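Q: What does the predicted 3D structure of CBS domain-containing protein look like?
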Amino acid sequence: MTVSELMRTDVVTAGPDAAASDLAREMRDERVGSVVIVEGGRPTGIVTDRDLAVGVVAESADPERATARELMTAEPTTVPDDLGVFDLCDEFASARVRRLPVVADDGTLAGIVTLDDLHVMLVDEQSDLSRAVQASIPPY
């Protein structure tokens, strides 16, 4: 399985000049924990709900004036859409993040994959494996 089979393609995005308040509303409305910041179709940053809490609320900043550029993690770790799941696990571990933007061959944003997506897939696979093992166990 590759990242392209696991990723979500309906990524919430914004430009670097988006206000923190707009980012927060998008996260609320779309029920996501991050917004990928794009320029020219390429991911140049990511803002998470934690970034908003720490960078705006904790600092008593004006959410109408604080921008994505000020809050984002610039140059986020990305993964190619043809990356395998085992390598994806390694990327999550080495980057120490919960969300990874996925890029196409040309570097443009293709999707996003989250640690939760990976976890759900792995649990489903484990469940399928468990059923296969149970089916092969003779009755006692």
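A (community wiki): The structure tokens above were generated from the sequence. Helices lie at 3-6, 20-30, 49-57, 68-71, 85-95, 115-136. Residues 3-136 form a domain with the CBS-domain fold (CATH 3.10.580.10).
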